[in-house]
Amino acid sequence: MARLYNGLFRPKRITVPGFDLAGEIEAAGRNVRRFRPGDRVFAWTGFGFGAYAEYKCMPETGKPMDGMIELMPAGLAFDEAAAVPSGGITALSFIRKANVRAGQKVMIYGASDSVGTYAVQLARHFGAEVTGVCGTANLDMVKSLGADKVIDYTKEDFPGNGETYDLVFDAVGKTSRSRWKKSLKKGGPYISVMSSAGLLPGTSLS
Ligand SMILES: NC(=O)c1ccc[n+]([C@@H]2O[C@H](COP(=O)([O-])OP(=O)(O)OC[C@H]3O[C@@H](n4cnc5c(N)ncnc54)[C@H](OP(=O)(O)O)[C@@H]3O)[C@@H](O)[C@H]2O)c1
Fold first, then answer.
1. In the predicted model, what is the mean pLDDT of residues 189-195?
2. What's the CA-to-centroid distance between 37 and ligand 1, angstroms?
3. Which is nearest to 168 in space by CA: 195, 204, 145?
């Protein structure tokens, strides 16, 4: 059994790691209203971890940090649904916080991994024109997610290409606001996945 250590002031032993899961409800407590045995669900465990176990016990609702569980959208396979929670919730939280909307030009820096791929899709969903930055091998994939433009960070002198954006979301945490001075429109926000913004109250998988 894998053992991880986590904790602010002292190590806390976590016997089963993993944040993201999908599966079937095996049993539901007497007071549970939203789920029944046999329901197909996906979840973010919160800092209780344990997603890689065979069975996981979770509250049906609670504070975001205690985990989130929802019915799986129809048509998704378990492995597809299990790929959504951490990256999807993180991206949604930041994209909502930045109030991304139609007509904006949005830069997603680090567009090809978990947080970035969801950020690209969500920014497009909210109507923005999206530019994604990633490595050579992932240019086509990021484009296929809906990015209007893609930039290869291994080839282009970036962010010095003359474009300006309403919002820069650094989804990999490799830059700082000062690096974007010339590329951000006046008053445009820079947000980094490394910031302490955390999960927005009300962010959920549904
Ligand atoms: N994964 C999650 O669910 C999750 C949840 C919450 C927070 N976070 C945090 O969010 C951050 C991102 O996590 P992640 O798992 O999405 O991705 P990751 O694996 O940390 O980052 C990889 C991404 O950054 C790009 N990248 C790497 N070097 C770069 C460079 N020098 N310039 C520009 N882009 C570069 C990669 O592009 P290529 O691969 O195309 O080269 C890829 O898009 C991490 O700090 C993580 O701790 C992650």
1. 91
2. 36
3. 195
